Amino acid sequence: MKAGELYPQGHSDHVASLHNLACDLRRRYAKTGVITDLEESIEVQRAALELRSPGDHDRSSTLRELTRCLSTRYDELGIVADLEEAIEFGRAALKLLTQQHPSRGESLHHLACNLRKRFVKRAAMRDLEEAIELLHPALELRPVGHPDRSSSLHELAFCLSHRHDKYRVADDLEEAVTLGLWPVTFGRSFSTSVKL
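User: That's the sequence. What structure does it adopt?
Assistant: Structure tokens below.
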């Protein structure tokens, strides 16, 4: 079933149905790995974004979902334009979120990950520095016990390790080791695989 068949354009739920369909397509892609689902999800989210005005309180959720899909497609296909757009939309989503918004930590984390990916591609230190700056507040919003804390710990440790490789600052390496040991110390395992 196509998005337009769910709720017609002009219907009050049309944009929400587009957004929900795109999310379902992304989830199906995550299960099946069929790239056309991811590509269709991106197309549908773009259509939803066009219909969400700057003042729409759900605009940030569409921006976040589009960011996630573009970043995933970059991981799969290596299309640099996808990464650039993911960073652009990630910044736009973050601007719309208050300090107390429940998705702020997630948005900080994903923007930092995308900046780190761009650093790996282009070796621009400003991207790595910004990623580190974003990950510290992301960790504050993901306190001990938060299910996603370990991914932010790992990402920050990875970024600090990269910065140590460039500048040989001992404090960066010490913090990276401390962050890397935290899940082990507290009995929480996490994946050490990071998409470059």
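The first helix runs from residue 3 to 6.
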